[in-house]
């Protein structure tokens, strides 16, 4: 690896307390780059607290060994240790007894090292290796004790602690939470013999015991009297076994030399931070930059033992061969800037990350969306793993099984979950069938473009054509009246009333923040009505102050990721100077050296990576494309030390607080008038130099040929659709077809053959009298034909009634409490409670957020007919009639109604509903309707078991 200034200590320019207050959710403790241990103080005892440490707190409850950087979830914080003075010990566990007050005057930290002198006189020092934490406690003259809390923070399912020898204990914390099952085995080795191990289960009295297990286990380790004698504690962790934890410890910390481990951690960080060498700017700007570098390199986390063993998505133990296994891929956030940053600074590591993602495909059956601790979480939306892989592939980073990766990407895109069944058939997701429907449509559309780009690079023309068409689906939710993306119903009506500032059709944003078509800005400008109209909309976004969030400029919300590319879009309309203006404002107004100096959750380094790349002077608007859009450089000089020894240097002449506008540029000494730079130019090494000034040069990069460009191919005809007709009918149905592309011709077949230009042209409604697949396609001169679409029209076959024997009123139910990702998770668990309930109801749930139900029984159907069932739920539900899955509404974060139709004979029919809740806003309502009848909630009088 090429390094920066070898005499420079970059770690001194890192302030690990940036982001530890308010929404940054960073932690000040110790880790090494991408380390699997993050040993840090916890100042929050509330298990639901999204952060473990807040700078404004004055009590430390302990030091736990795992933490997430900048994530808004109450996760990790495993294996909490707290030194205490042994006197007047409590009979039962009381975390407040062990807690100690502290002052920031006595707290010091930097990359790989943390120390605090607690107000009770105990001095704590921490450092770490990849898989181990190292504690150094210095007590005042008194007996020494270490409190160990395995119950904290929440969700414990299997705990044990065991005294192995006079110097060693081991244990396990298996818990559930956002990650379905988390295993943290540990081995703790002390520098002096243990006098006694006292343990408590379920809050009961402490007793002297060498082995204790249960679901609530806490312990006190007591040592002999000592006068200012140090107690050293080495802790190895593993997701595989205590044997794995022991091997990790014996390999990574071979002696009791705390300072040598601290020095090693420091050297690892200094090597990483030296990848980019910046000069100029203010002292604070350099501190923010290198702190951002530090945060960017905290995750993904190593998730394997020193011998290569790791716990896979399937819960089984595997051995990594030829790669290092990582976890904590916050991909919805990090695909935007963090992973593109790594394609510049860490090509070899990017290969390892992708191999690790493919291993999750091998172990779990699909590529992950947000993998955590050997689990799928399926958090957030999209399948942005496609972006991470495609971005690397088109940039020539290919040391992995690309064919397998591509297959996994296609499988994700072709699922029928999470609204994709509508997206594939309609070209958008209806707001009345899925929450966050506009956001999902736009993000799927971008991911499809990523798949298309990889297909193109792999010479897979058929796959390219298919996903290239899907990459245009964003057009289906663009409202030409408001010039915004807007919710659309299943019958193609716009969501009314439309409130752009607040609407359920978006995820963590509003209509202004979701101007999200990163792969086809040229197409979006065309839809908007041209450069001027597009730039005017961008002006509105950055100046509209009503409904403003913290950490924002107008509607631009830097504290959340959907906005992160918006400042760079002026450049596509020939107004690069406005990009320079707003990027400069974001760099200066939404970052600082204060504890609240990060505008929102750092989200595993994404907000930090935005700062790194933007301060260098460029940003990847569309990862998957080999260009970066130029903004404005922050430093007078920045040198990227590339892995192959080359250097890419960005020089900003005359850059100061007021000179942030680009006057002119050169690349390797030649005039450079483009407002983007190719990835290949960066990786070739060289010098990109800017002349900066206090006033905008509005001519620079304003010509069309000098602007960034999109790569979304020709315009395509939109998907034809069914505008009338019943897809389940009794005798016959009249089918009407339509297409939103004005002037398009629709052609169709009814005999199962593929439709084409020679197929029958649609001119009038089609009469269907038997079960038929209508296959349709649309054409228009000058545009690419639409994708073919299939709609099945089924003549009703009535499901026969069953004979259940003697029945009683009500449904049988099973009730569960824990975090669920999908209703399929319910099948893996033992219910907390069972019984009979009169109707589908979650009113008696013991929790307001994380729980699940399975309802099962019979429904009495009053007559032979076609019945429409409706399930309105929030996070996940599935309805089965006679074993047929009629409604799938899983992982749908939004209280919307899903519909299914079925033909039933009079009499009893089996009915089963699975429901899971994994957040706030719980809701469940189950209704039905006979054909031609009135929709009504299912009455308890027709439910039996």
Can you walk through the features of this model?
The chain contains 17 helices and 54 strands. The protein is an alpha+beta fold. Among the domains are: 10-273, Beta-galactosidase, Chain A, domain 5; 721-795, Immunoglobulin-like, CATH 2.60.40; 811-944, Jelly Rolls (Sandwich), CATH 2.60.120. It is globular. The strands form 14 sheets. A 9-stranded antiparallel β-sheet has the order 6-7-8-9-18-13-12-11-16.
Notable traits:
20% helix, alpha+beta, 54 strands, Immunoglobulin-like, Jelly Rolls, 945 residues, nine-stranded antiparallel β-sheet, Beta-galactosidase, Chain A, domain 5
Layout of SSEs?
Blueprint: E1 40-42, E2 59-60, E3 62-64, E4 80-85, H1 95-98, E5 100-101, E6 107-110, E7 113-117, E8 123-128, E9 132-138, E10 142-149, E11 156-165, E12 168-175, E13 182-190, E14 194-201, E15 207-208, E16 211-214, E17 217-226, E18 230-238, H2 242-252, H3 258-273, E19 276-279, H4 283-296, E20 301-302, E21 309-311, E22 317-319, E23 326-327, H5 331-334, H6 338-345, H7 347-364, H8 385-394, H9 402-413, H10 420-426, H11 437-457, H12 461-470, E24 478-479, E25 484-485, H13 521-528, H14 531-543, E26 552-553, E27 556-557, H15 576-589, H16 606-616, E28 618-619, E29 627-630, E30 637-641, E31 647-653, E32 661-667, E33 670-671, E34 676-678, H17 679-683, E35 686-693, E36 721-724, E37 728-729, E38 733-738, E39 745-749, E40 760-761, E41 766-768, E42 772-779, E43 789-795, E44 811-816, E45 833-837, E46 850-861, E47 865-873, E48 876-881, E49 884-888, E50 896-904, E51 907-918, E52 924-930, E53 936-937, E54 943-944
Parallel strand pairs: 31-35, 37-43
Antiparallel strand pairs: 1-3, 2-5, 4-10, 6-7, 7-8, 8-9, 9-18, 10-17, 11-12, 11-16, 12-13, 13-18, 14-15, 14-17, 19-30, 20-23, 21-22, 24-25, 26-27, 28-29, 29-34, 30-31, 32-33, 32-35, 36-38, 38-41, 39-40, 39-42, 42-43, 44-45, 44-46, 46-51, 46-54, 47-50, 47-52, 48-49, 48-51, 52-53
């Amino acid at each position: 690896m090429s390094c920066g200034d070898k005499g420079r200590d970059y770690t001194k320019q890192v302030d690990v307390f940036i982001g530890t207050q308010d929404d940054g959710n960073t932690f000040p403790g110790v880790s090494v780059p991408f380390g699997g241990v993050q040993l840090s103080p916890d100042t929050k005892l509330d298990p639901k607290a999204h952060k473990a440490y807040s700078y404004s707190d004055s009590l430390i409850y302990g030091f736990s060994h795992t933490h997430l950087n900048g994530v808004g979830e109450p996760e990790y914080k495993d294996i909490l240790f707290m030194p205490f003075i042994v006197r007047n010990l409590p009979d039962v566990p009381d975390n407040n007894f062990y807690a100690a007050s502290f002052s920031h005057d006595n707290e010091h930290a930097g990359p790989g090292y943390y120390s605090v002198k607690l107000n009770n006189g105990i001095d704590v020092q921490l450092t770490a290796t990849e898989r181990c934490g190292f504690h150094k406690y210095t007590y005042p003259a008194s007996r020494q004790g270490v409190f160990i809390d395995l119950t904290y923070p929440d969700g414990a399912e299997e705990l044990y602690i065991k005294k192995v020898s006079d110097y060693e204990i081991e244990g396990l914390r298996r818990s559930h939470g956002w990650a379905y099952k988390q295993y943290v085995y540990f081995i703790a080795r002390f520098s002096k013999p243990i006098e006694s191990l006292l343990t408590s289960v379920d809050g009961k009295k402490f007793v002297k015991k060498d082995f204790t297990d249960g679901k609530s286990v806490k312990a006190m380790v007591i040592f002999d009297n000592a006068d200012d004698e140090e107690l050293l504690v080495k802790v190895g962790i593993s997701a595989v076994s205590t044997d794995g934890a022991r091997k990790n410890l014996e390999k990574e910390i071979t002696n009791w030399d705390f300072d040598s481990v601290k020095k090693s951690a420091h050297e690892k960080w200094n090597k990483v931070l030296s990848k980019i060498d910046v000069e100029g700017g203010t002292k604070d700007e350099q501190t923010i930059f290198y702190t951002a570098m530090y945060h960017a390199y905290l995750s993904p986390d190593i998730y394997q033992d020193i011998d290569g063993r790791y716990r896979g998505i399937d819960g089984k133990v595997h051995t990594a061969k030829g790669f290092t296994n990582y976890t904590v891929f916050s991909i919805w956030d990090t695909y935007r800037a963090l992973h593109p940053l790594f394609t510049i600074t860490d090509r070899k590591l990017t290969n390892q990350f992708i191999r690790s993602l493919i291993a999750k495909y091998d172990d779990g059956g699909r590529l992950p969306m947000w993998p955590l601790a050997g689990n799928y979480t399926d958090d957030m939306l999209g399948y942005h793993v496609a972006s991470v892989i495609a971005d690397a592939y088109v940039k020539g980073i290919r040391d992995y099984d690309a064919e397998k990766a591509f297959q996994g990407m296609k499988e994700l895109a072709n699922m029928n979950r999470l609204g994709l069944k509508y997206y594939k058939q309609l070209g958008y997701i209806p707001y009345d069938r899925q929450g966050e429907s506009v956001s999902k449509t736009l993000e799927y559309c971008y991911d499809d473009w990523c798949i298309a780009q990889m297909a193109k690079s792999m010479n897979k023309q058929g796959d390219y054509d298919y996903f290239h068409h899907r990459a245009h689906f964003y057009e289906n939710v663009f409202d030409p009246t408001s010039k915004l993306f807007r919710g659309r119903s299943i019958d193609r009506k716009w969501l009314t009333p439309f409130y752009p500032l607040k609407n359920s059709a978006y995820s963590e944003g509003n209509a202004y923040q979701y101007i999200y078509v990163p792969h086809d800005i040229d197409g979006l400008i065309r839809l908007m009505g041209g450069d001027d109209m597009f730039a005017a909309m961008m002006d509105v976004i950055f100046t509209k102050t009503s409904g403003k969030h913290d950490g924002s400029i107008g509607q631009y919300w830097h504290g959340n990721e959907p906005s992160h590319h918006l400042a760079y879009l002026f450049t596509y309309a020939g107004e690069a100077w406005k990009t320079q203006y707003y990027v400069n404002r974001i760099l200066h107004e939404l970052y600082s050296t204060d504890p609240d100096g990060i505008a929102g959750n750092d989200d595993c380094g994404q907000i930090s990576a935005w700062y790194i790349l933007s301060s260098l002077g460029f940003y990847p608007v569309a990862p998957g494309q080999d260009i970066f859009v130029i903004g404005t450089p922050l430093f007078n000089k920045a040198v990227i030390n590339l892995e192959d020894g080359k250097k890419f240097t960005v020089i900003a002449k005359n850059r100061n607080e007021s000179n942030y506008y680009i006057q002119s540029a050169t690349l390797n000494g030649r005039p450079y008038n483009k407002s983007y730079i190719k990835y290949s130019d960066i990786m070739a090494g060289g010098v990109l130099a800017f002349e900066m000034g206090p006033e905008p040069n509005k001519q620079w990069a304003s010509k069309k040929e000098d602007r960034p460009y999109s790569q979304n191919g020709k315009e395509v005809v939109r998907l034809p659709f069914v505008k009338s007709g019943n897809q389940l009918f009794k005798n016959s149905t009249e089918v009407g077809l339509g297409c939103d592309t004005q002037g398009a011709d629709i052609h169709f077949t009814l005999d199962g053959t593929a439709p084409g230009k020679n197929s029958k042209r649609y001119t009038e409604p089609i009469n269907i009298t038997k079960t038929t697949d209508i296959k349709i396609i649309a054409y228009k001169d000058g545009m690419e034909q639409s994708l073919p679409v299939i709609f099945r029209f089924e003549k009703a076959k009535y499901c026969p009634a069953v004979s259940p024997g003697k029945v009683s009123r009500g449904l049988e139910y099973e009730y569960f409490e824990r975090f669920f990702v999908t209703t399929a998770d319910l099948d893996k668990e033992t219910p907390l409670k069972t019984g009979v309930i009169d109707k589908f109801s979650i009113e008696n749930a013991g929790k307001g957020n994380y729980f699940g139900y399975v309802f099962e029984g019979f429904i009495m159907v009053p007559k032979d007919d076609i019945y429409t069932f409706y399930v309105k739920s929030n996070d996940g539900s599935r309805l089965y009639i006679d074993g047929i899955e009629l409604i799938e509404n899983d992982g749908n974060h939004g209280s919307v109604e899903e519909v299914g139709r079925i033909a039933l004979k009079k009499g009893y029919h089996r009915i089963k509903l699975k429901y899971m809740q994994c957040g706030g806003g719980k809701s469940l309502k189950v209704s039905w309707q006979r054909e031609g009848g009135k929709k009504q909630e299912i009455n308890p009088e027709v439910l039996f078991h």
